[in-house]
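Possible regression after last week's pipeline update?

I re-ran a chain I had predicted before the update to compare outputs. Posting the input and the new output here so someone can diff against the archived version. Not blocking, just want to make sure nothing changed silently.
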Amino acid sequence: MSLFEFTFALSAVVLGLALTHIAATFQKLLLAGKQVRWSIESVLLACVVLFVIVSVWLFEWSDKDRTSVAMWQMLLTVAKLLTLYVAAASCLPEPEGSEPVNLREHYDRTRLLSFGALILSLVLFRIEALAVYGLPAPITFGAIVNWTLYPALYALLIFIRRRWFNITVLAFIIAYYGWRIIGIEFAG
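New output (post-update):
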């Protein structure tokens, strides 16, 4: 077993569980039928988290030629992945029994946890990138936007409760992030 296979297996388990949690919760919500009051914000947030998880998983392929890994890197990787799991686990509510479920109320109640986990995940990814690769040279406007856009948008979504704003920003994140990653190809 190569080092990549060994470390990628851990990522696959954590991120796979996060994806499974989103899918299983969505399925339970669908089965709950009329007791669920749907909200586009929660569904859009689940899509954002799904995009992030799948892209993180695929981008791990870039480490396939790694020949060594330090313990701090593995611990940081676990922390990064667990923050994504927390975001996945908090974006949709799990129905309990015959109790009504209101996705909008859940979104409002868990926005700090969901977006806070996404922000923390990005911070941890940036810390690792700085520690391993150093600062990009030169530091361009594009690099600054890349490092600050999503954390800034997530922070705004924590504090600005206007429904139209949340829907617009979540839709923008999906469209912009999707546009940035859709053409990326991976080869073995």
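Follow-up from reviewer: compared with the archived run. The mean pLDDT is 91. Marking as no regression found.
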